[in-house]
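We emphasize that the prediction below concerns an isolated chain of 167 residues; any contacts that depend on oligomerization or on bound cofactors are therefore not represented. The input was used exactly as deposited, without trimming of termini.
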Amino acid sequence: MARIYISLGSNIEPKKHLQAGLQSLRACFGPLNLSSMYESEAVGFSGTNFLNMVASAETDLNIATVVAQFKQIEQNHGRLIGAKKFSPRTLDLDLLLYDDIVCQTPVVLPRDEIVNNAFVLWPLAELVPALKHPLAGKSYASLWQEYDKNSQRLWPVAFEWPQGLTF
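Result of the prediction step, given as a token string:
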């Protein structure tokens, strides 16, 4: 079984879509470990704020199949095929890590956003502070500590999952 780390984000009815996305991920991959929820300003375009978080799960699926599952979940929850890269999203799911594999295809792993975007790095550092980035060789806690926190605005938000909802 491989341990995968997933970035989740939404800025269109974000609480609704993140909750639905997590339920779909749970149905595909079983129990999830979750970071806190964070709110951030849109990066790369002018738009409403995003809610972001990171989840982890275990899978016996290969990388290409995991990514295909993510795309299907996104589409099931209103993501338009072929939408511009920097635009509002109902649900955005990105594979950040697949164990400690480094590859270029079928996707780039580890994902560049880990070290470039606060909305990925902070929740990942919270979820697995001691885990080391496979290229940088530093823990996610260290990478977050070194990150220029003035470069992107990000703050934790209280979010209570509906009663009975477990991940």
